[in-house]
Design goal:
This protein is an alpha/beta fold. It has eleven helices and 13 strands. The protein has a four-stranded parallel beta sheet with strand order 6-13-10-7. Strand 8 and strand 9 (239-243) form a beta hairpin. Helix 5 (143-149) crosses helix 6. The longest helix has 12 residues, at 159-170. The chain is globular. The two termini are 39 Å apart. Mean pLDDT is 76; it is low at 55-62, 65-79 and 103-116.
Length: 317
């Protein structure tokens, strides 16, 4: 678990991590990508990863033996030959409780909790002053234009792009057919433009605005890093699934820059997440179907780096 957020990391430092142990009912309280507050105590446990390393084997040799592997005929080898190692410890955090740090009612996910949160329940979480302000905003005639101007206010112009991002943040309606097929309601947006036209500023603003948003660069992203990968646990030796960027952005927004510089083989990996909003993985005997209910906001340069006004738009996309 990352113990520090991206905005809290000092300059020139790497984010620090710590292992958190959850037991009993607390296990399902935290999911991949959540920002949580844990209450508990810091403990020291033996680092079992060192004991899984292959050590020396015990060998008993009597004097006068013709074994050439034993030097000076000393009989049993020393501690290094017996495979004994010094006990090392590592710090872990034993959590008693876990709760999400994002408690604002604006962060409610209606697609996940639409059967649990009614309109009255959502309205009850606002103060009377906030409800009056919301009612006043509803009566304004140019509400759509005013809300579009609030998208990345530091960027001048680009009203069409801001309206597209606004509609993506609101999203559509998740539907389910009679056969039980889930139809996505999230909107995927791709912003294509010349260099230095504030494409990355829109992505950075979305990441800073939403509590559950992930930003990556297409040039430095791989298929396993975007979807999921199977890693071997150093202590138990079992294979576990490590969440990628799309899983961490579940019920949020996934922003990717330099989409045109991304390897085509890695671009294919996110097609399933964009259409079906799931990630299917089958590696090392692990088969799973994971959720990736996220909207994708991509930024890319046109083919050739810049637009040519003498050619049609179809040539550059």
């Amino acid at each position: 678990i990352n113990a520090e957020y991206g905005a809290e990391i000092p300059s020139g430092s790497m984010p620090r991590t710590v292992d958190v142990i959850l037991r009993h009912d607390v296990v399902e309280k935290a999911k991949a990508g959540d920002k949580c507050i844990f209450s508990g105590c810091l403990i020291a446990i033996p680092d079992m990863s060192h004991y899984r390393m292959v050590g020396g084997t015990t060998q008993s040799v009597s004097k006068g033996s013709s074994n050439t592997n034993v030097k000076n005929d000393d009989g049993i080898k020393g501690l290094g030959g017996l495979g004994t190692k010094d006990i090392s410890y590592k710090l872990c955090f034993l959590a008693c409780t876990a709760q999400s740090s994002d408690t604002s009612p604006s962060y409610l996910s209606l697609s996940e909790d639409q059967q649990l949160n009614t309109e009255e329940d959502v309205a009850a979480q606002f103060t009377p002053e906030e409800r009056e302000e919301i009612e006043y905003i509803r009566t304004r005639s140019n509400l759509y234009q005013q809300m579009a101007k609030c998208i990345a206010p530091a960027v001048y112009g680009h009203e069409e792009v801001k309206r597209g991002i606004l509609l993506m943040l609101f999203g559509g309606v998740h539907k389910s057919t009679i056969e039980g097929i889930q139809l996505r309601g999230d909107i995927n947006v791709c912003v294509v433009g010349d260099p230095s036209t504030s494409k990355s500023q829109f992505l950075k603003w979305v990441v800073s605005f939403l509590p559950r948003a992930v930003y990556t660069s297409g040039k430095a992203s791989s298929a396993a890093g975007l979807t999921a990968t199977v890693v071997k646990d150093s202590e138990s030796g079992e294979f576990n699934i490590e969440a990628g960027a799309l899983m961490l952005a579940d019920n949020g927004i996934y922003c990717i820059g330099e989409f045109d510089n991304m390897d085509p083989k890695d671009q294919v990996a996110i097609h399933e997440a964009m259409e079906q909003q799931t990630i299917s993985i089958a590696k090392a005997g692990v088969k799973a179907n994971l959720h990736a209910r996220t909207a994708v906001l991509a930024a890319a340069n046109p083919i050739g780096g810049r637009y040519d006004k003498q050619k049609t738009l179809r040539v550059f996309i």
